[in-house]
Write a structure and sequence with these properties.
By secondary structure, the chain is an alpha/beta fold. The chain has three domains: about 210 residues, FAD/NAD(P)-binding domain, CATH 3.50.50.60; about 90 residues, no CATH class; about 120 residues, Guanine Nucleotide Dissociation Inhibitor, domain 2. The protein is built from 16 helices and 20 strands. It has a seven-stranded mixed sheet with strand order 8-7-16-17-18-15-19. Strands 10-2-1-14-20 form a five-stranded parallel sheet, with helices on one face. Strands 5-9-6 form a three-stranded antiparallel sheet. A hairpin with a 4-residue loop joins β7 and β8. α1 runs parallel beside α16 and α4 crosses α9. The chain is globular, with a radius of gyration of 22 Å. It starts with 10 loop residues before the first strand and ends with a helix. Bound molecules: flavin-adenine dinucleotide. The site of flavin-adenine dinucleotide has 35 residues, from α1, β15 and α16.
Length: about 500
């Protein structure tokens, strides 16, 4: 058991100003700790940073904000109100699903959603009521588990987890599990494609994650005016308001380790910064490979990490266009003609499909701040294999870009975007890798049950003393709400040690 340590103003070093690191920074700063954040990039936010191309503002990564109440709690724990910093927009209808032969508008409104199901899948609409009746209890129990710390086996077998056990559909994938409510494969896909948020296939993603479609339908999804990157910018502001220092362009070269405990960080510029506790927000697997001197780690040594399962990657296309396309909603998901084969190509065959699924975000129809007047920025995300595939992206990039633009022309109302492109930016899995994302696996360690809860890297790191982990590669997982939760858990654990 960790002793309560002396409570003079304690120094906390945080490696990385992504959403996890910023959550911990603002909460700990508000609790009176001396917080210093070291961020290698010139901006805060990590994968949640803003990407500016010409006069167009894109979100580099996250575009769906779910479970806004977790973000609100993080701000409350930092003594602030999220609404004072951010302008939220509740999006309903939530998104459009484009199948090869029909389109479904997905809404939070239960009756309107049933009407959509009745139109697209006649006779299946009653399944929706059953889904809500049964899944609210499951959500309550499972989400309570995700809020907990799993630093030790005793923490694992806590009453909250034990009460949730009967609600965990062990041995069934989310796709199989949705068979409890819907017969049609496509309707089940409409409630399970959310596994892609975790970078997993619906046929492999554990039934545990049936909470994802429930969360969307029960609590809705949000946009933040200016883009979701505004969240990270606001968190940085709050952290600084409470006294934290955020150093940009300050890459950490290595953790300073003595007798198995982290005593601070060594910066690339040669400076040593000593700290009472150190929090790692850098991509977990990449940090283990690069920031810890060889021979120290056992459970998460580079060789052991190679045996873990990682998420897929994403091919990104950010387009600045010369007009606004008002017939496409804020979020659209286009399903491959053969979704099963496309998913197998991404996760099993590790090759590029010629029949792709993709996501399009057309934020200009909701938000005038993201593009010059009369113009729009369109963000396209294509799930593709991670870098264990060995795909040569230098070679594939131009061909794949053309294929994505052709698919947009043939599968959506946008038509051929080529004549409208003013500026563009592509990010391939190879670039994600260069940005410090292990294997370019944009959603981190996969969320298989043997890599969840106690079996995911603990927030109080089991490999090194005085070291805490936050971010998508750690417990509870890789979406924004769970990442905020990781920051809260780490801050609570540190607060407890010092009685703060
Ligand atoms: C394309 C994409 C789309 C996504 N969409 C969604 C979505 O819609 N909704 C959702 O909830 N989630 C989404 N996610 C997942 C997740 O929310 C984001 O990836 C999130 O930004 C991850 O946060 P993080 O705290 O793990 O750290 P990161 O965002 O990875 O930040 C880590 C930070 O550490 C810094 N760093 C790394 N090494 C060092 C070092 N040595 N020294 C100093 N600093 C260092 C990095 O520069 C970075 O700023 C998406 C992710 C991607 C990539």
């Amino acid at each position: 058991m960790e002793q309560t340590r002396n409570n003079a103003k304690k120094k906390i070093a945080i490696v990385g100003a992504g959403p996890g690191g910023l959550t911990a920074a603002m909460v700990l700063a508000n609790r009176g700790f001396d917080v210093e954040v070291f961020e290698k990039a010139g901006v805060v936010g990590g994968r949640n940073a803003e990407l500016t191309v010409g006069g167009f503002r894109f979100d580099l990564g996250p575009t769906f904000l779910m479970m806004k109440f977790v973000l609100d709690r993080a701000f409350e724990e930092a003594g602030e109100k999220s609404e004072d910093y951010l302008e939220f927009k509740h999006l309903d209808p939530m998104y459009r699903l484009l199948f090869p032969d029909f389109v479904m508008e997905v809404t939070e409104n239960r009756e309107a959603m049933k009407a959509q199901i009745a139109r697209c899948f006649p006779g299946e609409e009653a399944g929706l009521d059953k889904f809500f009746d049964r899944e609210s209890d499951r959500f309550r129990h499972i989400y309570a588990c995700l809020e907990k710390d799993y630093s030790s086996l005793t923490d694992f077998f806590n009453p909250i987890f034990l009460r949730a056990l009967p609600y965990i559909p062990f041995g069934r994938s989310i796709f199989q599990y949705l068979g409890n409510y819907f017969r049609s494969e496509r309707l089940r896909l409409s409630f399970t494609f959310q596994s892609k948020y975790l970078g997993m296939s619906p046929w492999e993603c554990p039934g545990f994650f049936v909470i994802l479609p429930y969360i969307e339908h029960a609590f809705g999804i949000f946009h933040v005016q200016g883009g979701l990157s505004e969240i990270s910018a606001a968190m940085a502001k709050v952290a600084e308001k409470h006294g934290a220092t955020i150093h940009l362009n300050a890459p950490v070269k290595q953790l300073l380790i003595e007798k198995g405990a982290v005593k601070g960080v060594l910066l690339e510029d040669g400076r040593e910064v000593l700290a009472d506790e150190t929090i790692l927000n850098a991509d977990f697997a990449h940090a283990m490979e690069t920031l810890v001197p060889p021979g120290i780690l056992k459970k998460y040594s580079p060789a052991k990490l190679k045996q873990k399962k990682f998420s897929c990657s994403t091919f990104m296309l950010y387009l600045g266009l010369d007009k606004i396309f008002d017939d496409l909603p804020h979020h659209s998901i286009v399903f491959a003609r053969d979704y099963h084969k496309n998913t197998d190509d991404i996760f099993r065959n590790l090759k590029l499909s010629d029949d792709i699924s993709f996501y399009i975000r057309n934020s200009s129809i909701t938000d005038p701040r993201v593009a010059p007047e009369g113009k729009s920025g369109i963000y396209i995300l294509v799930p593709v294999p991670n870098n264990s595939s060995g795909i040569d992206w230098e070679k594939e990039k131009p061909r794949f870009r053309e294929m994505v633009l052709d698919a947009i022309a043939s599968r959506t109302t946008l038509g051929d975007l080529r004549p409208h492109i003013e500026v563009e930016r592509v990010i391939t899995p190879a670039e994600w890798g260069e940005r410090g994302v292990y294997l370019g696996a944009t959603f981190n360690l996969a969320h298989s049950m043997n890599q969840m809860l106690y079996f995911r890297p603990h927030n109080k790191f089991e490999g090194l003393d005085r070291c805490y982990l936050v971010g998508g590669g750690t417990h509870p997982g890789s979406g924004l709400p769970t990442i905020y939760q990781s920051g809260l858990i780490a801050a609570h654990l540190i607060g407890k040690i010092y009685g703060q």
